Amino acid sequence: MKIKINDKDAYYTSSGREIDKKQPTIVFVHGSGLTHVTWVLQTRYFAFHGYNTIAVDLPGHGDSEGPALKTIEEMADWIADLITSLGIEKTSYVGHSQGCLVGLEFAQRHPDKLELLALINGSMSMKMNTELLDLALNKDQKAVDLMMDWVHGPLGHKGGHPVPGLSHLGMGGQLVSSNNNGTLGTDFNACDIYTNGLKAAESIKHPTLCIVGKHDKMTPKKVGLELASKIKDSKTIVLEESGHMAILETASETKNLLKNFFREHRSAS
């Protein structure tokens, strides 16, 4: 589905379901160089269990018109504009990797629009390897190859994709390559220059779930736990078999953690 945000086409998917203003909403925000496709194994469950699920393509990604936004702050404001344009007053937010930085900033800048927050494979900052950043800024395919090797843990490297016939490295590489027209470099640079993570994390008063991958090399376990420690009363789960791509490497387990988190707080409300 497409909607105009700041006079540009913005794409999102709601798993084929119409938005029902009586239902709670969850917005899913992808990581660097990725698209809404990475959420397909989580969003479908919530779409058929009483939630509006809005999985976005950030500007310049997938089917959303570009250019890609240059800062995390711009991305957070874009999410707020999308929610407003859809006529939604409040939403829960699920972010992965770069989407976690966007989630931190969204929570600080637009707290009145947020209900619950889930951060998967996140950190308060993401300083990029200089070689990888330079390759991405130069639109070099090697940046994609290095990224795929780095973000996947043991499960991702040996196979076991939840969709039969696909591989983690193959699917991920194709997805990022489709956005490697400058978007990946812009995303990496936005992560590299973002400095407000600590302040944003300490400002959060909403119920928050932090999912951390034991084998995560992009945002290592220790920085994931540090992020969680700065968010008051956050709940933290370490996935023992996951690398940085928990939403695919351990898709079912990640979905169940999200399900339990939203069910717990939905029942309490």
Distance between the termini: 30 Å
CATH topology group: Rossmann fold
- Choose one word for the global shape: globular
- Main sheet summary: 8 strands, mixed
CATH architecture level-2 label:
3-Layer(aba) Sandwich
What structural class should be given to the helix and strand makeup? alpha/beta
User: Helicity range of the residues?
Assistant: 40-55%
Q: Which spans of ≥5 residues are poorly predicted at pLDDT below 50?
A: 164-170
CATH superfamily: Alpha/Beta hydrolase fold, catalytic domain
Number of domains: 1
Could you spell the SSE succession in H and E letters? EEEHEHEHEHHHHHHEHEHH
What would the average pLDDT be, to the nearest integer? 90
Strand coverage percent: 15-25%
Strand arrangement, largest sheet?
Answer: 1-2-4-3-5-6-7-8
CATH class: Alpha Beta
Count of alpha/pi helices = 12
Measured on Cα atoms, how large is the radius of gyration? Answer: 17 Å
Number of E-state strands = 8
What features would you describe in this structure?
The chain contains twelve helices and eight strands. By secondary structure, it is α/β, with parallel strands linked by helices. The protein has a single domain, classed as Rossmann fold (3-Layer(aba) Sandwich), CATH 3.40.50. Helix 2 packs across helix 3 (98-109), helix 3 (98-109) packs across helix 9 and helix 5 (141-151) packs antiparallel against helix 7. The radius of gyration is 17 Å and the shape is globular. The model is unreliable at 164-170 (pLDDT under 50).
Write the layout of secondary structure elements.
Layout: E1 2-5, E2 8-13, E3 25-29, H1 40-47, E4 52-56, H2 72-85, E5 91-96, H3 98-109, E6 114-120, H4 130-137, H5 141-151, H6 154-158, H7 168-178, H8 183-193, H9 197-203, E7 208-213, H10 221-230, E8 235-239, H11 246-249, H12 251-268
